[in-house]
Specification:
Blueprint: E1 2-6, H1 11-21, E2 28-32, H2 42-52, E3 56-59, H3 73-93, E4 97-103, H4 126-141, E5 145-150, E6 153-154, H5 161-171, E7 174-178, E8 182-183, E9 186-187, H6 188-204, E10 214-217, E11 224-225, H7 226-235, E12 243-247, H8 267-273, H9 280-289
Parallel strand pairs: 1-2, 1-3, 3-4, 4-5, 5-10, 6-9, 7-12
Antiparallel strand pairs: 8-11
């Protein structure tokens, strides 16, 4: 079993790289980070995959600068849509499988209950549109694939909401955080643990059967606002005296439009694979203990 991992140095990729290296049945793991391979260079990407000849491609790489994407449409599209298309076509040519991560931002956020995989995507940002195009490219070009949509990803490493809140709390007595966007914060550790179970399934079944291929939602359980998430972070930190104030999205304008509600239903993931991620509060506590 040979796995080719893209995004090795990113938030999720770092945890995946560590865990896959020790996973039973993985004979060889090749990881590529941003310093090794620019995913916008599609010919180089294609050559790497053909040289590596993996049994399974895991794509944890993405263009994730949501606001910057509004002015870097071509780059976001290359990394989030065209590169996954190249990966999917190469995987099929090699008779390999593929796991690809996507985002809650493929939805417009107008729902009032958790989105299922059957709900119609309607992204309202360049980032969301490019990720949806990537989903469609993978599904069209690699039948032996899983698309894993997740949300509000964070860890104690890299650039993310958790680390930003801790940095700001060390500098200020008061934080103002948007309270009318609702989602499910999800740790890279929880995502990695769940992904490892899917990798084991792949190895035991010599691939992802037609019956299980497709899109799955994979987030921690429960829901909260960015402000609620910030309050939980601060309460569990050494800066617990810092005040966290709730503000509306209108008071914090950004180039990219954010969906107001993107809680994802994980029922299909549990019904198909028996996988359930921890609730977001428990995952946050575990994450902060890793510091």
């Amino acid at each position: 079993m040979k796995i080719l991992l893209f995004g090795r140095d990113g938030q999720l990729g770092t945890h995946l790289n560590e865990s896959l290296a020790d996973a039973a049945g993985v004979e060889q793991l090749s990881g590529y980070g941003i310093d090794d391979l620019d995913l916008s260079h599609l010919d180089h990407l294609r050559q790497v995959i053909n040289d590596e000849k993996p049994n399974l491609i895991i794509n944890a790489a993405a263009y994730t600068a949501v606001d910057k994407a509004e002015s870097e449409v071509e780059l976001a599209t290359k990394v989030n849509a065209e590169a996954p298309s190249v990966m999917a076509k190469a995987a099929t040519a090699l008779n390999a499988g593929m796991i690809h991560y996507s985002t809650d931002y493929v939805f417009d956020g107008t729902a009032t209950e958790p989105y299922s995989e059957d709900d119609q995507p309607n992204p309202e940002s360049v980032y969301g549109s490019s990720k949806l195009d990537g989903e469609n490219a993978v599904l069209a070009n690699c039948k032996n694939s899983l698309i894993l949509r997740t949300s509000w990803v964070y860890s104690m490493h890299g650039q993310n909401f958790l680390r930003t809140m801790l940095r700001l709390a060390a500098e200020r007595d008061e934080l103002k955080v948007v309270g009318d966007q609702i989602g499910a914060p999800t740790t890279t550790r929880a995502l990695t643990d769940a992904t490892l179970k899917l990798v084991q399934y792949f190895m035991l079944n010599n691939g992802f059967s037609t019956a299980v291929c497709g899109i799955y939602h994979m987030t921690c359980g429960g829901e909260t606002s960015w402000c609620g998430f910030a309050r939980a972070i601060i309460a569990a930190s050494e800066f617990s005296d810092t005040r966290v104030l709730d503000i509306p999205t209108a008071d914090y304008p950004t180039p990219a439009k954010r969906p107001p509600y993107t809680v994802l239903s994980n029922k299909k993931l549990f019904d198909t694979f028996g996988i359930r991620l921890p609730d977001w509060e428990a995952a946050l506590s575990e994450c902060m203990r890793e510091e």
